[in-house]
Design goal:
about 180 residues, two-stranded antiparallel ribbon, DUF2087 domain-containing protein, alpha+beta, elongated
Amino acid sequence: MATDPDAAKLVGLLADDTRLAVVAALALGATDIPSVALATGRSQTEVALAARRLGRGGLVRRDGAALELRRGLFAAAAREAGEHRPPPPPLSDDPAADAVLQAFVRDGRLTSIPTHRGKRLVVLDHLVRVFEPGLRYPEREVNALLAVWHPDTAALRRHLVDEGMLSRAAGVYWRSGGTVEV
């Protein structure tokens, strides 16, 4: 019997249209070569060849014409791939601030606005860095810069003003606080 495939091997097994169709049909309830052929519109010969390759790769169990998708391999491969993922780069030199930022920032976007004021201050200090000190920004531009981070630009704008990180007058905003890198 083949060893369990890792994530890269699974992707390779699914890179062929016929094998992918066979796996899809099995995932949707087909249980043998004739039912997979019917579900996919492929010939029984094509299905048998694909099933043989999937069986050698460890993704499908074959018993004569009966086929069984080893569904658990997808979760196992995903877990294993996640274990080998390098840790995300730090978002702050301060370990405490980095822990807060790692909890609320994913792929360069804010997942939610922290309700705890201390954590919210850490996040706001990180966000306010998109504003250059000394420059004036119309509200539309402030919204555009904040929308990159989170869809609730009004809440972010309000928090930044309330915490003294942005100031506003007559619809124009400017940076008035937060950490400045030198």
